[in-house]
Write a structure and sequence with these properties.
The chain is of the alpha/beta class and 288 residues long. The chain has nine helices and twelve strands. Helices cover 27% and strands 27% of the residues.
């Protein structure tokens, strides 16, 4: 006969599967958090959301983006935010919880994914407006100086599309940001960081202030991972970001000023005619 079931044994995670416009989505329940789910699209982990605690950020790079959100304005002050790339709207939920009243626009290419997330992981009453469309095309329709925070976190097949990695794209980001606004981008790379270095150089061509937040072993080329690129036309809160990332369970380094310039030294600015998507991640990365 089978072994008796232990009452304290963790339950198998619940899984919701659905066909979406660009493949297949899965929502996998978190056995340690009763109302938390991980979203995977075509096998790639995209988001983690805790409906009971929207301030909980599970993924390393999203926690670092959260530190940026915490430092760009006085605590609880609303900000106008644009998020290119939706997933399960993790960071928009965090902004809504920590900065109530913030008007936010989320742009997600996959309309069926939006419907799935809205049905299974609703964010009603948070002020988050979600729309379907291509990130760059939608960005081009936004008024100048209409955002205080603009976040790029778009992946297609585990890669950031090429048209979101060019100087022409960053120029439109700069147009949409208000004076003092902050651009935050999720940049995936590894090894010699050739792609990331090009992204830093490209951002620096339009913003006088840039910083990079990343784990030390990623910066040294020992593994693939996510760097958070931050750019603005005003001085960045480097000291505060350094304190927050040093105290985070996933410790990271903050490079700014001469340090980030050294990292990007010799890298060419990417343009529409020559840019490429982010590198293909190694097998098993991003939950594949």
């Amino acid at each position: 006969m089978p072994d008796p079931v232990r009452r304290d044994a963790p339950l198998a995670p619940a899984v919701v599967r659905a066909e979406i416009d660009h493949g297949r989505a899965e929502l996998v329940g978190d056995p340690e958090r009763p109302l938390a789910w991980t979203l995977l699209v075509n096998g790639t982990a995209q988001s983690h959301v805790d409906l009971a605690d929207p301030e909980h950020l599970e993924f390393e790079y999203v926690r670092r983006m959260g530190h940026v959100v915490d430092t760009i304005a006085p605590p609880t002050e609303p900000v106008r935010a644009v998020h290119l790339g939706g997933g399960a709207w993790t960071l928009p939920r965090y902004v809504a919880a920590t900065r109530p009243g913030s008007p936010q626009l989320v742009v997600e290419l996959d309309a069926a994914l939006i419907d799935l997330v809205a049905a299974r992981l609703p964010a009603d009453g948070t002020g988050i407006d979600v729309t379907s469309g291509d990130a760059r095309a939608r960005l081009a329709t936004l008024p100048a100086s209409s955002a205080d925070l603009l976040v790029l976190d778009v992946f297609a097949g585990a890669r950031t599309p090429a048209h979101l990695t060019s100087a022409e794209f960053v120029a439109d980001v700069r147009r949409v940001l208000a004076p003092g606004g902050v651009y935050v981008a999720n940049v995936a790379d590894g090894g010699a960081l050739e792609f990331a270095r090009g992204q830093i150089a490209t951002a620096a061509a339009h913003f006088p202030e840039t910083a990079v937040i990343a784990a030390p072993d990623l910066l040294s080329g020992r593994r693939f991972g996510n760097l958070v690129l931050v750019a603005s036309d005003r001085p960045l809160p480097v000291a505060d970001l350094t304190r927050r990332t040093a105290g985070d369970p996933f410790r990271a380094r903050v490079l700014a000023g001469p340090a980030v310039a050294r990292l990007a030294r010799g890298a060419a600015v990417r343009h529409d005619r020559s840019t490429t998507p982010s590198p293909v991640p190694p097998p098993g990365f991003f939950g594949q």
